[in-house]
Design brief:
Layout (H helix, E strand, L loop, with lengths): L1 H9 L4 H9 L4 H13 L5 H15 L4 H10 L4 H7 L5 H15 L5 H14 L4 H16 L1 H5 L7
């Protein structure tokens, strides 16, 4: 139990991550008893873990849904739990936020270079072509007209 709790102290983990870690040191029957204890005490919950992983990625390192799915599968989360966690995922907003910093750095480079580099960057983050096309277009428009991205049309002042 102590080894599992120490492993969980760094960040939330999936059941499978904890299982893999403990199996290196302990027999399978001990590992399964510890996992049952951790689930009972609510230290392990793959549904909550997948939601936290998604929220962390959206907030800090936006990724496309395919890449998020692959990350969670690699961490041992069940496909159904992943599908549930990605319900309502806004790929367009995530692609936009993922590309903002690079877009600002590429601002003076001309559209062909801007498009090529930003497209490649977003592709590597797991976004599909349709989402990338919209994000590149939106970011280019905002750089061309800085007020476009900062004026709230619905707000009356």
């Amino acid at each position: 139990k102590r080894a599992a709790l120490r492993f969980l102290a760094y960040r939330a983990r999936s059941q499978e991550e904890v299982r893999r870690q403990l199996r290196r040191l302990y027999p399978p029957e001990v590992v399964e008893r510890v996992l049952a204890y951790l689930r009972e005490q609510r230290y392990l919950d793959d549904t909550a873990f997948a939601q936290q992983w998604r929220q962390h990625r959206e907030r800090n390192q936006p990724r496309g849904p395919g890449l998020l799915r692959m990350e969670l599968l690699r961490l041992g989360v069940d496909a159904e739990v992943i599908r549930e966690a990605l319900t309502g995922f806004d790929a367009a907003d995530n692609a936009y936020r993922a590309g903002r910093t690079l877009a600002r750095r590429l601002a003076g480079s001309g559209y062909p270079n801007f498009r090529r580099k930003l497209w490649s960057y977003l592709r590597g983050r797991g976004f599909d072509d349709t989402v990338i096309r919209d994000a590149v277009s939106r970011l280019w428009r905002e750089l061309a007209d800085p007020l476009d991205g900062s004026v709230d049309a619905e707000r009356e002042e």
